[in-house]
Amino acid sequence: MSLVPSMRGTPPSRDFTQFISLQHSLTTHGVPFTPSCKVRGRAFTDRLGGCTLKQGNHGSSKNHPHPQGNGNGGAGEGVDRKLHNPIEDRLIPLEPLDLSKIGSIDSLVRAMSKTAFTGRQLGEAADVLEAMALDEDAFVVMTLAGAMTVAKQGLIIAELIDRGIVNAIVSTGALMAHGLVEATGRAHFRANPEVSDEELYEQGYNRVYDTLEPEQNLDDVEEVMSAVLESWDHNEVMCSYKLNHAIGAYLSKHAQGQRGILKSAFEKGVPVFVPAFSDSELGLDTALNNRLRESTGRHKIRFDPFEDLEHFAATLLRQKKLGIFTIGGGVPRNWSQQFGPFCELRHRRLGENVPLKRYHYGLRICPEPVYWGGLSGSPYSEAISWGKFVPPSEGGMFGEVFVDATVGLPIIVAAVLERLDKNKKGSGSKKGKRLASKR
User: Fold this and answer.
1) Cα(first)–Cα(last) distance of the chain, in Å?
2) Does residue 375 surpass a pLDDT of 50?
3) Quick check: 438 and 319 in contact, CB under 8 A?
């Protein structure tokens, strides 16, 4: 049959274009190509070395016989359906969200869990966080990406640390640096959309979407960093969790009345890891301090990121069960999740006697869709194949909410804190004390 479009000036169809591209690719690589083409709708079939190639539906009516019905299934007719009883099938009925019965954030979130779409995801996510918080054996790692401190979510994270719900932090360095702005009493500001970025640059305002970070804030943060770095003993190899511990100690002493992530982490014994340390204001301040040390004839600070990895792994290996609470994705998420493969490789390649630990709990809030193929949007089910998570069939429990974290995080955490406060009445808080003794 002719492969030339029948109407002059009519652009070739997508099927035709893909067919020609396939033919060109195969012949370029020396593969015989004998077309026997039949274009029908969006499907076409070609013969290639006796193999049938088909775009779209790769199935075959011979391999997948159509259920018997009144008509010929091969012609696309339907079948006589046997209608099931949803109650007998043990399906869970949804419930209308009745605002007249809502008296708290927790009651709203519980009601949302009985609805659909993102509302149900949010409600189910709260159940996962509650389960992690109540599990005496669960050690919870919180990973942070995105401008969460610029977006004024830092105190939520500090509250999770103070309550003993979060036991380790893995974050971007930028998020910790911007958190220092808040922890030292500085502020972020609303951006005026009528002011251009060129003007903002000239005025010393760094824009993060709809929010401004004055450059002066970062200069003030550098004063804190300078005080910490100048007191660092060059004989002590630096890594991110050690530096963040030192920053937290400084804030605990000098930032009285202020709250912040690193301050809470220091006071509660929670390690804070920054895997991509040099990709941050903290990393640049450390680089500048090293240049200053060198120019004044002093020893430079040595930084070893593998001390972070080893300390993180050793900490998690001491725990009975693991949970992860992820905001966004990026390096913090992947670095934390690669703990499982790290243990496996040590066992399989080096013959080390280490347990093959995986995360039992997982909760992530991220609007990134899965179909881009990036890690930030990848579901926990994918991570099971890498040996990072315990599958649900073995007791794994996961929640995934595809929503902006500045919306999802406050609602989920507020609901869970209400639940924990109700459970705590008369029983006291045991988990925080017990976990503090484990670190």
Assistant:
1) 74
2) yes
3) yes
Going by their DSSP bridges, the two strands 272-273 and 168-171 should be labelled as: parallel
Ranking 60-64, 274-278, 340-344, 417-421 by mean pLDDT, the lowest is 60-64
Kindly state which CATH superfamily the domain 99-436 is placed in.
Deoxyhypusine synthase (3.40.910.10)
Q: Which of 326-330, 394-398, 424-428 has the lowest mean pLDDT?
A: 424-428
pLDDT of residue 184: 85
Cα dihedral 342/346/352/353 (nearest 10): 30
State the Cα–Cα distance between residues 220 and 213, nearest whole angstrom. 12
Give the bridge partners for 323, in sequence order: 140, 361
- What are the sequence ranges of the domains in the chain? 1-41, 99-436
pLDDT at 33: 46
Q: How confident is the model at residue 232 (pLDDT cuts 50, 70, 90)?
A: very high
> How many angstroms separate the most distant Cα atoms in the chain?
91
Q: Of 326 and 27, which is predicted with more confidence? A: 326
Query: Which position has the token pair 């993180």?
Result: 312
What does each C-alpha distance from 189 to 212, 332, 432 come to in angstroms? 5, 27, 35
Three-class secondary structure assignment of the chain? CCCCCCCCCCCCCHHHHHHHHHHHHHHHCCCCCEEEEEEECCEEEEEECCEEEECCCCCCCCCCCCCCCCCCHHHCCCCCCCCCCCCCCCCCCCCCCCHHHCCCHHHHHHHHCCCCHHHHHHHHHHHHHHHHHHCCCEEEEEEECCCCCCCCCHHHHHHHHHCCCCCEEEECHHHHHHHHHHHCCCCCEECCCCCCHHHHHHHCEEEECCEEEEHHHHHHHHHHHHHHHHCCCCCCCECHHHHHHHHHHHHHHHCCCCCCHHHHHHHHCCCEECCCCCCCHHHHHHHHHHHHHHHCCCCCCCECHHHHHHHHHHHHHCCCEEEEEEECCHHHHHHHHCHHHHHHHHHHHHCCCCCCCCECEEEEECCCCHHHCCHHHCCHHHHHCCCCECCHHHCCEEEEECCCHHHHHHHHHHHHHHHHHHHHCCCCCCHHHHHHCCC
Could you report the per-residue pLDDT of 4-39, keeping only the tens digit for each? 444 444 444 444 444 445 444 444 445 444 444 333
Contact by Cβ (8 Å): 272, 261: yes
**Amino acid type, 283:** G
pTM over 0.85: no
